[in-house]
Design brief:
The protein has helices at about 5-40, 45-55, 55-60, 90-105, 145-185, 200-260, 260-290, 305-320, 340-360, 390-395, 415-425, and strands at about 40-45, 75-80, 85-90, 110, 115-120, 125-130, 135, 140, 300-305, 325-330, 335-340, 365-370, 375-380, 430-435, 440-445. It is α+β, with helices and mostly antiparallel strands. It is rod-shaped. Residues about 405-410 have low confidence and may be disordered.
Length: about 450
């Protein structure tokens, strides 16, 4: 492969080479014309006029005008002073035009031809000549040398142009063929793209972009497949885990029949209730998994941020009671609207708040701080030990659990993922960090509705 180039440079080279080729053709034909004129094969355009004017006295005194004493390519007619045609080699139409010259007694330019009048002693001679070069082939006279020149120059310039165009487009055809092969490969779902460089910058950029797109598509499909496999495994695990509390419920129900004392019946009943609670958690997580496929089905509308925030605080307080926690909050000071799906966005926030509750010690507080800073900013801070480095990086990854033991049946790594996706669908962002006093904090930013 040669030195890398660009389309702009190729077009410039094409125009320069074509222009030089055309100039060379014109120069070549000019030289040929000069050679033909030098050897007497080509009669210049003004040759007849110069010859006749230079030899006018000789033509006035010669006894009889003939073709032999006139330059090539001219015709003549001799007339009496009474305007009667005597002799010559003019055609009928030419004789009629020459007759008008004789009548007016002066030379006259008619069309492309000059009718030149010579007053002789006994008669008058009218010589007709043109201003076109004449090509002589023996006795044959060719009067269209200009057309021949134009035809030659145009023909060879066209050939030169087509040659240079074919030379350039042949490279482009190879490039387009490479791109076509890549698109066909992608269409056939073969995402391992390999293609040699074309050495043309713009085409190489397109091919490189297609290869990058193919790699991204491959990674995306691989991640999607891995996610699907993981989700299927989680659902299978959840379905399997449901058997455990069902077995506990069944066993305790049997024991409840045989219980003799009130204390035993209460223990078996409590065990049954715990098993039922576990089943409820499993079903809730399975429903969350199914809802991940429906996050694009939003019913967005203009909602008062103040009213929605008050409703969120009320729900958060109810959630905090379960964990024996308090909710401390500060509301935005200004009124504004958010364009959102209230149900989905509330669900996302409650997932974050529940995560904060689960990591806060009993009798402590979870803090909600809402304010406006060019956008709506909601900070949710717990009273726990903060996020680990691994948790900060992977908290929104589907199925990520900081506690990886199977004993933690309350968590399956779904809630924060769903919250992040819902917030992103509302053109918002979710940021996870630790405060200066090492408590976990999640910041949600949402655009304010304008209009």
């Amino acid at each position: 492969m040669g030195k890398p180039t660009t389309i702009k440079r190729q077009i410039t080279v094409f125009l320069v080479r074509t222009g030089l080729s055309m100039a060379a053709v014109i120069v070549f034909w000019f030289i040929v014309t000069q050679i033909l004129a030098a050897i007497g094969v080509l009669i210049p355009p003004n040759y007849a006029e110069t010859y006749i004017k230079y030899n006018t006295k000789n033509l006035m005194n010669v006894n009889e005008i003939s073709e032999s004493i006139l330059p090539p390519g001219v015709s003549f007619g001799v007339y009496s002073y009474e305007n009667r045609y005597l002799y010559g080699n003019m055609e009928k139409e030419e004789r009629e035009l020459a007759s008008t010259v004789v009548t007016k007694r002066y030379s006259n330019l008619m069309g492309d031809n000059m009718y030149y009048l010579i007053n002789r002693e006994q008669d008058m001679c009218v010589i007709k000549y043109g201003y076109k070069p004449i090509l002589l082939f023996g006795k044959f006279e060719f009067f269209h040398y200009n057309l021949l020149s134009m035809g030659f120059i145009l023909s060879f310039c066209t050939i030169s142009y087509l040659y240079e165009l074919n030379r350039m487009t042949k490279q482009w055809f190879y490039c387009f063929h490479s791109i076509e092969n890549l698109t066909e490969t992608i269409r056939n779902k073969e995402l391992e793209l390999t293609c040699a460089k074309t050495n043309i910058k713009e085409f190489d950029q397109v091919i490189h972009s297609m290869q990058d797109m193919s790699r991204c598509l491959k990674d995306s499909l691989q991640n999607q497949w891995t996610m699907e496999q993981t989700r299927n495994q989680q659902i299978a695990s959840l379905a399997h885990d449901v058997k455990i509390p069902l077995t506990i419920i069944k066993g305790n129900a049997e024991l409840l029949k045989l219980a003799d004392t009130e204390k035993e019946r209460q223990e078996y009943t409590q065990s049954i209730l715990m098993g039922e609670s576990r089943i409820e958690h499993y079903i809730e997580h399975i429903l969350k998994l199914s809802r991940l496929d429906q996050l694009s089905k939003f019913n967005k509308k203009e909602v008062s941020a103040g009213g929605w925030f008050c409703s969120l605080v009320r729900d958060a307080k109810g959630l905090a009671k379960v964990y024996d926690l308090n909710i401390e909050y500060s509301s935005p000071e200004t009124e504004f609207n958010l364009y959102m799906d209230p149900a989905f966005l509330t669900s996302a926030m409650l997932n974050i708040i529940m995560n904060a509750c689960e990591h806060s010690p009993e009798k402590s507080s979870v803090f909600l701080d809402g304010k406006v800073d060019g956008e709506f900013v909601l900070k949710i801070r717990d009273s726990g030990p903060g996020f680990s480095e691994e948790a900060r990086k992977n908290a929104t990854t589907l199925f990520y659990m900081e506690d990886k033991s199977r004993g933690n049946w309350n968590h399956y790594g779904i809630g924060m993922t769903m919250a992040n996706q819902i917030i992103a669908a509302h053109r918002g962002t979710l940021t996870i960090f630790n405060t200066r006093d090492s408590h976990g904090c999640v910041t949600v930013r949402l655009p304010i509705s304008i209009g």
